[in-house]
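Example (one chain per record):
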Amino acid sequence: PLLILACVITTNVEGKNIYAFYDLGAAVLSLIIQAQSLGYYSRQMALFDKQKAKGFFKLEKNFEPYIIIAMGRIGDYKNVSKQVIDRELDPRPRKTDLVKELY
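Predicted structure:
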């Protein structure tokens, strides 16, 4: 398993990097497509403490953590606890259902 911290570089030699998010999206897409072609799976996560990540990795001022990508091969469920399996198999609410609840 591998965890990748994907960052945007907010400034460059010309000043503000207005294409930072586009560049990161293209890079992540390319990485994931290549990984899948080699038999790896990935999960992208955006809900993490970005300031802690920035401090932990001692990132430069113009590097902003944006997502974490977990990557690896499908594992063997024989060694996974029942609690983890149950959580993974539990039905999750659909976005359309959440929107209906707002009205």
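Caption: The helical segments are 20-37, 50-56, 82-89, 95-102.
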